[in-house]
Amino acid sequence: MDARRAVTVSKYLAKHLRHRPDRIGLALDEGGWAEIDALLAAAAAHGFPVTREELDHVVAVNDKQRFAIEGTRIRAVQGHSVAVDLDLLPATPPPHLHHGTVARFLDAIRAEGLKPMNRHDVHLSPDRETAARVGARRGRPVVLTVDAAAMHRDGHEFRVSANGVWLTRAVPPQYLRFPQSG
């Protein structure tokens, strides 16, 4: 499978396992799992045939490890806008986490903090490099630092997904540090 096809399949999987399973008639269970055979049949029926080999390849090589396979089922490991319970337990975060964004959102973030927007949680990265890559998807990245230790101490809950993304309901502005130039 060439790299371009892998990206296309990954984006298709993310869209339908995180946001729009109904668009192709796919049913997710309460944990976000879908039967692989049902996913492949639904994709083919809706004009986007994917082989099991392609699916396995995308799951294995995805740099962000967005998907998990368990037996005959597959799910996205985080980032859902549809109602699912990933059964992630509360965890103690590292002292600092990071969030990648772009300059045009900084005024709103300064005023309101980080919000989940159309997702269930705010996504935070354990390192600046990952946060910069996330922010770069929308333009020149700005990396914010989150005082996760203070948030946790003040009662905010954190969970960590299977691929190392830290999740929390929101980050109030007082826990954010902005770069000097941002």
From TrEMBL:
<dbReference type="Pfam" id="PF01885">
    <property type="entry name" value="PTS_2-RNA"/>
</dbReference>
<dbReference type="InterPro" id="IPR022928">
    <property type="entry name" value="RNA_2'-PTrans_KptA"/>
</dbReference>
<dbReference type="GO" id="GO:0006388">
    <property type="term" value="P:tRNA splicing, via endonucleolytic cleavage and ligation"/>
</dbReference>
<comment type="similarity">
    <text>Belongs to the KptA/TPT1 family.</text>
</comment>
<keyword id="KW-0808">Transferase</keyword>
<comment type="function">
    <text>Removes the 2'-phosphate from RNA via an intermediate in which the phosphate is ADP-ribosylated by NAD followed by a presumed transesterification to release the RNA and generate ADP-ribose 1''-2''-cyclic phosphate (APPR&gt;P). May function as an ADP-ribosylase.</text>
</comment>
<dbReference type="InterPro" id="IPR002745">
    <property type="entry name" value="Ptrans_KptA/Tpt1"/>
</dbReference>
<dbReference type="GO" id="GO:0003950">
    <property type="term" value="F:NAD+ poly-ADP-ribosyltransferase activity"/>
</dbReference>
<dbReference type="GO" id="GO:0000215">
    <property type="term" value="F:tRNA 2'-phosphotransferase activity"/>
</dbReference>
<protein>
    <recommendedName>
        <fullName>Probable RNA 2'-phosphotransferase</fullName>
        <ecNumber>2.7.1.-</ecNumber>
    </recommendedName>
</protein>
<dbReference type="InterPro" id="IPR042081">
    <property type="entry name" value="RNA_2'-PTrans_C"/>
</dbReference>
<dbReference type="InterPro" id="IPR042080">
    <property type="entry name" value="RNA_2'-PTrans_N"/>
</dbReference>
<keyword id="KW-0520">NAD</keyword>
